[in-house]
Amino acid sequence: MSTLTSIPLKQRLAARGYDGLTLLCLPAILFLLALFIYPFLYGLVLSFEPKQGGMFANYQRFFSDSFLYGTIGTTLWLALPVTVATLLLAIPIAFRVRLMKNQRLLTTILVIPITLGTVLVAQGLLNYLGPQGWFNRVLMTAGIISSPVKLLHNYWGVMLSLVITGFPFTFLLTLSYLSGIDPALEQAGATLGAGPWERFKNILFPLLLPGLAITFCLSFVQAFSVFPSAVLLGAPAGPTRVISIAAYQAAFEEYDYSMASAVAMIMGLVQLAIVVVVLAVRGLLYRGPAGGGKG
Amino acid sequence: MTINAASFRELRLDRLSRDFGTHNALKDVSLTIGKGEFIALLGPSGCGKSTTLNLIAGLLPATGGGIWLDEKRIDPLRPEERGFGMVFQNYALFPHMSVNKNIGFGLKMRGVSKAEIDKRVAEAAALVRLQGQTEKLPGQLSGGQQQRVAIARAIVVEPPLVLMDEPLSNLDAKLRLEMRAEIRRIHNTLGATTIYVTHDQEEALSLADRIVVLRDGQVRQVGTPDELFFRPNHLDVAEFMGFRNKVKGKVASVGDGKATVTVGDAQIGGWARTELAAGAEAFIAIRPEDLHPVAAGLPGLKAQVVSTEFRGREFVGFARMADGTDLSFLAHDKLTPGEAVTLAADADRVLVYGNAA
């Protein structure tokens, strides 16, 4: 009977969850297309149109020049320790803050570095960590060191500034994942005889781990794309010549946009590879709700 | 059955108090609980019953008084050092562990060997009738099954005391009746000592050996279900136990455990449940099922019918007295709203409470 199948299109769409409201997605889709998808595809195509040589000439050049492919290692050597360090810092602080009644003040203080931006933090650190800065002066006055520690224009300056600017983000994410765990679970653990360490190891940490994996990915991607602090606080010609500097030099010193696009693509691939590995490991974990029952 | 509750003689709460800022959640609660007893803490929400349970479990520190297990003071101990089993209102099952791992968690924390854990977990699962479900995650179980896991997890360690915080409040009516019987069966099988928090007097009456009625952070009455049901010693307790009609009057005479109260132009007789003085204000309390219409002219409470509802065997009536007091009663016949009615109860079924109560 044909009458059975003649349900109006509008109704059939509505049954699948599409109605007038779906149109509200359009601005977001346009936004993504214009600011992300198009530039990405443009860059991808551009990277295969080198100034000279074949289609893959840019990529061949990148992976045959240690001055270029070395930046992958340099950036990873910064971004991975920074991500791990911010996580290791954020976890205990989040555990402490979650128990506090006046979280807001502390959270505000911890979040300020986000609002300052990397350049301002870098400027501040230039003074603070310099040979005449507070940090060295206090240590020298206290007699702990006899000559200033060199923390600027090397690996440590960039590392410190990345930890400072990355921490609030990592901390906030960790705190929100941690707050999502039903406090009754920890209490249940305690009544069953588990001390604080056992409760952390057996209950809280396993439930927090999937969230930490996401936090790790986001923090890592942020740290991997470091640029201002690597230039201002690091040694951009040597130990902190990160991959974004390579892309910058290709684009604005050699005016080779095609090469710069290739570097950007490689940068994206490395980030993607790390994220895929982390998410694959996360896939092996329990990822259900962190609640204790139907509640 | 090798699951047996560890032995002790009694648990004593000694003037136990808990303040939250300026608010007294619990005030000077003293109570002695003997081994093997099933105690229900009963009261409306905010009466301090869950606070009491959390204090006993060690999840909240007391701000006054002490908790004693025989001669040992346990209130300075942390929850993990007390070794009591607790069943939480939302079950608090570990969502990332299988049923087996959940039940075995307490044993693992106590350093019991793997083989022994497997054996005892299997026994506990059998006791709560969960065989065949033990490899699943809690999220894959129904509410009733989750409830059983929570109970098994709490009892498998053979705790001296099992604490239950409104364990049935998240279940539907049918399952609630089923699990109620189950909880009592498990209590009897283990010879455990159980403290059970609930706001449902029916649950408390049917489960407990003794009921502790709490109100505003204080103990109102402690007694067997029978005592509480028939002889509540406080107007609040009486209301909670189903004496829903509360009528104000003046004491006419007192004597021999009985009292007569003047309400309007009627003299109502009943049992005096508190100290009463002739001439003082008093309240009479009557269950709706004991209050019936009588012929006009007989002594009783005068009221106007508001409505009647058919309940199969009889009608439940609602009426309002001239002073605005609402009454509910049972009637054999349907009454018309607006009709004048005289309601009376057997003097044996009427309780009288002083105004100060």
Number of strands of chain B: 20
Shape of chain B: elongated
Tell me the helix content of chain A: over 70%
- CATH 4th-level superfamily of the largest domain in chain B: P-loop containing nucleotide triphosphate hydrolases
Beta content of chain A: under 5%
Q: In angstroms, what is the radius of gyration of chain B? A: 24 Å
- Describe the largest sheet of chain A: none
CATH class category name of the largest domain in chain B: Alpha Beta
- Run of helices and strands of chain A: HHHHHHHHHHHHHH
CATH architecture of the largest domain in chain B: 3-Layer(aba) Sandwich
Write the layout of secondary structure elements.
The complex is a heterodimer of chains A (about 300) and B (about 350).
Chain A (H helix, E strand, L loop, with lengths): L1 H4 L3 H7 L10 H22 L9 H8 L1 H32 L5 H14 L1 H11 L5 H8 L13 H25 L3 H9 L4 H29 L3 H5 L10 H10 L4 H26 L13
Helix pairs in contact in A: 3-14, 4-5, 5-9, 5-11, 6-9, 7-9, 9-11, 10-11, 11-14, 13-14
Chain B lengths: L9 E11 L2 E12 L3 E5 L6 H9 L6 E6 L2 E2 L5 H4 L2 E3 L11 H11 L4 H14 L15 H13 L6 E4 L7 H18 L3 E5 L2 H7 L2 E6 L2 E6 L1 H6 L4 H6 L4 E11 L2 E6 L2 E7 L8 E6 L5 E3 L6 E10 L4 E7 L4 E6 L8 E5 L6 E4 L3
Parallel strand pairs in B: 3-8, 3-9, 6-7, 7-8, 13-20
Antiparallel strand pairs in B: 1-2, 1-4, 4-5, 9-10, 11-12, 11-14, 12-13, 14-20, 15-19, 16-17, 16-19, 17-18
Helix pairs in contact in B: 3-4, 3-5, 4-5
Keywords:
heterodimer, A: 295 residues, mainly alpha, MetI-like fold, 71% helix, flat, B: 357 residues, alpha+beta, Rossmann fold, OB fold (Dihydrolipoamide Acetyltransferase, E2P), 2 domains, six-stranded mixed β-sheet, five-stranded mixed barrel
